[in-house]
Design brief:
Strand order of the largest sheet: 1-2-3-4-8-7-6-5
CATH class: Alpha Beta
CATH architecture: 3-Layer(aba) Sandwich
Radius of gyration: 15 Å
Shape: globular
CATH topology: Protein Transport Mog1p, Chain A
Length: about 190
Amino acid sequence: MSRNAKIALIVIGSLAVVCVAVCAAGFFLLPTLARNLVSDNPANAKQVASEIADYTLPPGYAERMGMNFLVYKMVMIAPEQDASSGMFIMLMGTQAAGVDQADMERQMQQSFQQQFGRNGSRMEVVGQERVTIRGKETTITIAESDASPKMRQAIGAFEGKNGLVVVMLMGSANDWDDGLMREFLSSIR
């Protein structure tokens, strides 16, 4: 793998980590602080998701949270019954003018390094897969944490309805469902 490819993967991973941190903060803190920006109402989350991309939900999953930060939109998809188990899926789209993938990746790389530097954990790339999203081939990077219990994440980027979209799937390495990941990614249109 070339140096530029590794850098690109790190940047995409950084973007996803920051998005997860923002989503987690939003899921627990922001509803009380900014009810107009973050919603855990499934109908509102579904509306935000529809502005990012169309997809088919995996069986037993639902849009659990949506965020609309002007030019950035995020949706968190998790199991309907127990959001703390299984994998969760995050889509983050941007409509920012003049933002290209390289700039976004660079910013996310910095954020990713800061996030994992604080808690002592780091993610290591364990593989890549080529998948088709919205009719175009995309590389999905698979990484695992060096902490216990091991977490696994899959991250990639594609052109959504209104701009660049980063997709991330994350969950326990022990409970990872590769079939669910592939099914969801192939359903994005």
